[in-house]
């Protein structure tokens, strides 16, 4: 039911036949539970751009976007944005090149919700990642579907426990706007899982990634945090919440 606080983008039901199996399109519902406007950014891994790449989402508002089978990509929240009538401007966190409609990724630090739909074994793969840092709480809740279908998310205020050396401060308010990853802060192989630390065997958790993991156990805290951070589900739609109230 439409109302002033809910935006509904026309969705449709698509069935494709892959290897003789009927696969449904997936509906993403983006819900803003934050007390402030966010500007979701969306980066698609193929030509199927959802939501034109970005739009404003006021407190309490929701948007439905439909992705075809095989879609992959990521969602994130931008905050403190100002755009002119032509869609040019900037955001305090998560900016994607100074445009409303993103055609590239969000500038770290940024919390990410990542998806690969109908991947290996016909399953969807999804996660919430803090590998690029943190700016807003996010949650992914499967709706329907079969399989494990666990909730994924980071519902803690990581900014509240962010160490001084990782903090991004809002120049207007003086409060912590985001929390950088150790990779972004120090650009070292140990923290970035590159060079001599480019494999799961040589890139171990650090005290910085442990801080992220302690705050958000169900989210990626560093590049090889797969075992407790990647989730699967089949035939599901997904609710993506900004500032979710609970898991």
What does the model show?
Helix content is 7%, strand content 30%. The strands form five sheets. It has a five-stranded mixed sheet, with no helix packed on it. It has 247 residues and is mostly beta strands. The N terminus is likely disordered. This is Pathogenesis-related protein 5-like. Keywords: Signal. Pfam families: Thaumatin (PF00314).
Task: Tell me the helix content.
Answer: under 10%
Strand content: 25-35%
Cα Rg: 18 Å
Largest sheet: 5 strands, mixed
Measured distance between first and last alpha carbons = 25 Å
Strands, total number? 16
Structural class: mainly beta
Shape annotation: globular
The low-confidence runs, each spanning 5 or more residues with pLDDT under 50, are 1-22
Mean pLDDT level: 89
- Biggest sheet: strands side by side, in what order? 5-3-16-11-12
- SS field, number of helical segments: 3
Order of SSEs, N→C? EEEEEEEEEEEEEEHHHEE
InterPro entries: Osmotin/thaumatin-like_sf (IPR037176), Thaumatin (IPR001938), Thaumatin_CS (IPR017949)
Pfam families: Thaumatin
Keywords: Signal
Signal peptide: 1-22
